[in-house]
Amino acid sequence: MTDPFYITTPIYYVNAQPHLGHAYTTIAADVSCRYNFMEKKDVYFQTGTDEHGDKIERAARAEGLGVKEYVDKISGLFKDLWPELKIKYNYFIRTTDPSHIKLVRELLQRIYDAEDIYFHEYEGLYCFGCERFYAERELVNGKCPDHNREPELIKESNYFFRMSKYQDWLMDHIESTPDFIRPKRYKNEVLAFLREPLEDLCISRPKSRLKWGIPLPFDNDYVTYVWFDALINYISGLGYPDGDLFSKFWPAAQHIIAKDILKPHGIYWPIMLKAAGIDIYKHLNVHGYWNIDENKMSKSIGNVIEPLSLIEKYGIDSFRFFLMREMTFGLDSNFSEQSLIERINSDLANDLGNLFSRVLSMGHKYFSGIVPLIDMDAENSFHFSLEKEAIDAVEKFQGSMEEFAFHGGIAAIWGLIRRMNKYIDVTSPWELAKKKSAKKQLEIVIYNLLEGLRVVSGLIYPVMPDASVAMQKHLGLDADEVLKGKFNYIDELKKWNVIKPGTRLLKSIRLFPRIEN
Ligand code: MSP
Predict the structure, then answer these.
(1) Upstream peptide bond of 462 is cis (omega within 30 degrees of 0)
(2) Is the CB–ligand 1 distance for residue 85 below 6 Å?
(3) Exposure string (b/e) for 471-492, b if CB count within 10 Å is 16 or more?
(4) Which of 13, 225, 12, 213 is closest to 133 using CA atoms?
(5) Is the pLDDT of residue 369 over 80?
(6) CA 502 from centroid of its chain's CA atoms
(7) Looking at the predicted structure, is the pLDDT value of residue 289 above 90?
(8) Mean pLDDT of 365-388
(9) 288 in ligand 1 pocket by Cβ < 6 Å?
């Protein structure tokens, strides 16, 4: 039986259009999904949109649209963008879907019946920008750190979720489950939160103040608020409690988020699941923030990067490659068009593109485009096999990809590419071609380079699916098998001498044109 793999992105608020940050997370989820496909896992990938709340109601009003009309429009922008970024999700969830709303209400009732939700009058400092209460210690000089505004003192009766009851349980779980939250810095951050007293979570808003939400099943004057609605998407999308999807994929659930929503995912969500009697997810994978020319990306600064214009200019594979290579998963990174161009020119056009066209051209020049048959005895005495280097690269790649260290996975591939470029310099095929007596050696060199390219073409598949297929077709590999995965499966990439002698190579192309500055 194949192992399941379930990956989710955050569901994005529809108060803004999709930008680079959303694109990064969703591409990362797609890359991990394609990688797990290569590991022959049964994969399921969910993304979607978060559509309730004040901010969204206000955004709709600002555009002069009805709220439903507005959320349909923006949700559609996200849904339509993902295929352009070569993102292949299985399911797109919206929190306004009736099946999602039904489940949120069921779980609220279940937790309320178990007395983990209670009613309480509360006075506190509320930031209207963040739509939440702040504790004094969270403020910076008395102001909300995100909006740089003093929050207002308001009094309200609301429903609260008894999180404090589960604090010790969660701490034990995180401490005893390696990699539950990764990379480690975020696990430590969550543990630090949990060492402080955990306040119960306000989960409702009076309808007099917020109408665009899901009504509480036990009090019609209130709607539920932000996280109690949004987080449940991860299981409502699988059809919990019925259906095969939930039983199959939930035990293998992995979330990807950025550090901004660590607390809801690392603390509220496992506790909500525990209180509802549902097993908790397997891993939370947390990445850092993209800054733009060293600044925070924001509408007010006017530096929001929209993915589509970049793709038109540089191509989707290059864009995906840059995002995955440039950001060390877990740390913040800086985006600039200049660094994108530099990476395309050096890593893609120079290192990989040149290698690919050099090898294919030599295949045509010395062997008329027909993969040569090599003499194994000669190969053993010549000691110029790339097999070990290729297998090492595949193993390093696997180790990194398992941990969501995409940058490390790519570095492993580029290690092999550089090795192959050096191999050409050392073996100097053009010299071998001058000597009749070196014919066998020339065959060995070209064949090894073709095999190396086959391995590289498979390894780049999760990040650059189009370039992967183009390379494989040029190597004469069966296009059908390529698309079905045969030449992209990790276990196939650990084999050597796979390309059949006699295979016809296609004429070389420029995989990645240089960008002139
Ligand atoms: N709706 C909530 C999430 C609910 S999930 C149950 C939300 N939405 S959001 O639209 O604000 O999206 C936040 C996410 O978008 C981040 O966690 C991250 O995945 C992505 N990013 C938004 N800006 C980003 C950067 N500048 N850099 C990297 N990723 C960022 O929070």
Answers:
(1) no
(2) no
(3) bbebbbbeeeebeeeebbbbeb
(4) 225
(5) yes
(6) 40
(7) yes
(8) 90
(9) no
380 close to 497: Cβ distance less than 8 angstroms: no
Q: 386-424: b or e for each residue (b if 16 or more CB lie within 10 Å)?
A: bbebbbebbebbbebbebbbbbbbbebbbebbeebbebb
pLDDT, mean of residues 181-194: 97
Q: CA 327 to CA 308: how far, in whole Å?
A: 20
Q: What share of the chain in percent tops pLDDT 90?
A: 87
Shortest-distance atom of ligand 1 to CA 234: 6
Query: How much is the average pLDDT of 6-20?
Result: 95
Residue for token pair 């086959």:
454
Distance between CA 321 and CA 339 in Å, rounded?
12
**Type and span of the H or E element at 198:** none
Q: Report CA(43)–ligand 1 centroid distance (Å).
A: 23
203-213 pLDDT, tens digit each: 999 998 888 99
Q: Is the pLDDT of residue 345 over 80?
A: yes
User: Quick check: 147 and 129 in contact, CB under 8 A?
Assistant: yes
Is there an atom of ligand 1 within 6 Å of 21 CB? Answer: yes
State the amino acid at position 87 in one-letter form.
I
Residue 265 DSSP class:
I
More confident residue, 31 or 127: 31
The catalytic site residues sit at 19, 22, 127, 130, 144, 147, 296, 299
Ligand 1 pocket residue status of 22, Cβ below 6 Å: yes
- Residue 312 CB partners (closer than 8 Å, separation 6+): none
54 vs 434, residue with greater confidence = 434
Atom of ligand 1 nearest to the CA of 233: 6
pTM for the whole thing? 0.95
Calculate how far, in angstroms, residue 11's C-alpha sits from the geometric centre of ligand 1: 8
Q: Are 515 and 341 in contact (CB under 8 A)?
A: yes
State yes or no: pLDDT of 243 exceeds 90.
no
Q: What is the DSSP letter of 118?
A: E
Tokens of 298: 């924001």
Give the CA distances from residue 368 to residues 316, 356, 446, 473, 498, in Å, rounded to whole numbers and listed in that order.
Answer: 33, 16, 12, 17, 20
Is the beta carbon of 95 within 6 A of some atom in ligand 1? no
Pairwise CA distance, residues 358 & 69, whole Å? 54
Residue 280 in tokens: 């908790």
pLDDT single digits (tens) 107-120 = 999 999 999 999 99
297 Cβ below 6 A of ligand 1: yes
Alpha-carbon distance of 433 to 410, in angstroms, equals 33
Closest C-alpha among 454, 512, 510 to residue 321? 512
- Token pair listed for 463: 């990040």
Determine the distance separating the centroid of ligand 1 and the alpha carbon of 498, expressed in angstroms: 43
DSSP one-letter code for 212: S
Atom of ligand 1 nearest to the CA of 260: 17
Ligand 1 atom closest to 256 (CA): 19
Cα torsion at 268, 274, 279, 280 (round to 10°)?
A: 20
